Structure formats: C-alpha cells, structure tokens
Amino acid sequence: MQFTSEQLLDDGVLAREFTLGEIPGTLWTPASSAPVPLILMAHNNGLPKGAARLVARARHSAAHGYAVASIDASGCGDRPRSAADEQARAELRRAMQAGEPVDEIFESFIGPLVENAVPEWRTTLDALLALPEIGGPVGYSGWTALGIRLAVAEPRIAAAGLFAGGYVPRAQREEARQVTVPLLFLLQWDDEGNPRQRALDLFDAFGATEKTLHANLGGHTGTPWFEVEDGNRFFDRHLK
Amino acid sequence: MQFTSEQLLDDGVLAREFTLGEIPGTLWTPASSAPVPLILMAHNNGLPKGAARLVARARHSAAHGYAVASIDASGCGDRPRSAADEQARAELRRAMQAGEPVDEIFESFIGPLVENAVPEWRTTLDALLALPEIGGPVGYSGWTALGIRLAVAEPRIAAAGLFAGGYVPRAQREEARQVTVPLLFLLQWDDEGNPRQRALDLFDAFGATEKTLHANLGGHTGTPWFEVEDGNRFFDRHLK
C-alpha cells in the first residue's frame, strides 16, 4: 500500500490517497493517537470513491472517530470498464428510455461487478488492518449488493449499514439470509428506480437477528443528513 | 392542576403525580432552571400511565432535557371503564381465543376511547403550558391512534413519535393524510397482533413531508432500547 498524497482537512481528518497494486483508494482517519475501528465505504453500483456524497459521509464518520476507506474496485469508479460492461450500460440506457424491463440487463453487469470487486476489497482490508493507526473491528457502509457478498465472504465484517437504492443481483438476494451481522438498512420510500417492495422483501430476508430498517420519505438522492449521524451511532453500538 | 406527590429520582428527574379535575397524571421534569420543551406520552390503547415501559421512556426523555407528561384519560389506565367497554374487551378476548376476526370489535371500543381521550389531553396540555418550568414546543410520543387524532385537532403538537403496534381505527387511518407534522414511526417487524402491511400502508398515508420509519426485528414488546435514544434525537431536531 503506497500513499500518494495527503490532505489535512479542517475537521482534523487526514485524507490520504493510496494505491494497492492496480487499486486506487482513499483513507480518511481522525486525529487520534490510539488505533480506531474501520469502516469500508462503497458507493452504489460501482460509482467512484470520489463522489461528493460518499466523500461527505466518509469525512463525517472519520471526524466521529472512525478510519474510513473506499476504493475504486475493478470496473468501478474511474477504473476502465470492459467492452461487455460498456455494452450492457448502453443497453440499459436504451431500455430505460424505451420503458422496457431492465432486470436482466442489470443482472448481466452488476453481478460480475460485485464478484470482481470482492477480492479487491478483501486485499484492501488486509492492507488497512496492517496499518498501526487502524485497529478493528470492521464495519461496512453503502452499496447493498457488495455488502451482502462481503458480509458472507469476509468474517472480519462485524456490522453493516446498507443503502437499499440499487439493483441487487439474484445471487445476493438469495444469500441475504446468510448475512447474520447486525444491519442498518436505509431505504428511500419513493426511490424512483428501485421498487419499494423488493427492498422490504430483502430486509425481511436478511438472516441477522439484529436488523433495523430506516425509511425516509423522498426519492433516491433524498436521504436526510441525520441518517449519517444515525449510521455513526449504529456503528458505535457494534464497533466500539 | 394539583400536585399530589413528588419524588426526586436518582437521575435528577423530578416525578410528580397530579390531578386535573378527574384526570390523574404524572409529570417528569429535568433538573433545569430554564423552561423546557414538553412531550406528551401516551401508552397504547389506553394502558396505564404507570406501566413500567412508559415510565422508563418518560424518565429517560426527562433526563435528556424534556418535560414529559402522561395521563390516564377517560376510560384509560386505572380510570373506570364503561359497561360497553368491558363487554367489548370480553368479546375481544373470546374472539381472539376462537381465532375469529377482531377488527370490528377493536373498532367498537378503540374508536370511542380515542375520541374521549382527546379533550382530556388538550385540557392537560393547557394546564401544563401554564407552568413556568414548561416552555414549548410540544411533541407527542406513543399511541398511534391518539397521536393522529391529537396531531390533527391540536395545532400545538409540533412533532410526533408514533408506535405502530396497536389497532388504529378507520377514522384515524383516514385522517392520517392530514397529519403534516414531522413523524417518527416505530414498527416491530414481527408484531404478533398487528399486521405489518397495515402499518406500512399507514406510514405511506401520513401527509407529513418529513417522516421516518424505524422498523426492528422482533415482536410487539421487543423494541430495542436505542429507539428511545433515537426518539430523543428526533425530538431534538424538531423541538429544540
């Protein structure tokens, strides 16, 4: 893991860009002398780690006392996309404009995106936990499909905050019942592109004995800011 | 309003019993020299103000900085019940044991219970706001059916935290869209006696532009304690 730049932000948070082989990442850490717990934060469906809303959440959680890390995994964010992926996304846009069903198109590229992202997140986790400033335990926040796959594959994930707005491949909907870590599931009640009932069914399916749904009125991007604070408190209950 | 007893609790909260005409009530206030906002707290379907879980919530919110008041309204708690009410409750027990539908029985006695409780809660609110230690604004917490009726009838209610576990008469389900104050709606996902879909439909129906659903795994009485803290923070956003 090589740090390529660093910036001390006005809330005392240190933001560092790093590379780990081909993987570009960002690590936000609080001003703290003791090792702190870690939150892996992933944006929906492979959106970039530099997206403004993700960065705002990461900074807030870091200022609250967490190390927060995000990467652009293979095919995600600013990483190159395969020709098949580009073609699927073009087909998705066409189908959406035509008002045609899109589930199978989503399935064709979100499924592999999740599968390919998981080993890179695990490699990153290994490297992060070797840093002296990061202790544990480890939480996960954000992209639901990746969170399900990671929580099932990676025993070091101790709690997960998942955002319901995003296509969840059938494979992850089926393995949701194997997710047994404490969960906070965040739903936008009127999310334009994501059927509410499907999200409620997924919440029902999770195998965790401790799971909480927070639903707020409004569309996909309308999550109120206080949910970031609620998320911090959820992690405080399970990671501190 | 006459105070009949008082007790200083170990968290610095003063608990006072009062009577207001025929209405018995309890007022919990924090150790504070400035006037504090008020939360009216009502237990589901007319259960007593002295119920242990209500008292624990009231104390916690008072220690957090709120005046909290609860009453046994007409026909509620330890107040005498009408012969018709007793008969309806006996019929309810019989029907539940026999596995028969119970909606119409609930309707026959919860409807009047709500209607008769509202004027007594409003009278109590008048008296409470005349006390120098209570400022405003005013929140409501607990029994959903009463909360809907009060929020529609009483413009001084500025925010409401409602517990979904309890029968909501048709009249209140219909006027839910007139409830426009910020809402926190608390649902137990596996509440034995209260259909989940009916609660989700009610959340959908509320007219508030700012409404949040918190759902937790577990049965009717399994609400996790952190929801009391979340409730305090909800009121902090709207009453402070």
TrEMBL record, chains A, B:
Q: Which Gene3D superfamilies match?
A: alpha/beta hydrolase (3.40.50.1820)
| Organism superkingdom | Bacteria
The name on file for this protein is Alpha/beta hydrolase
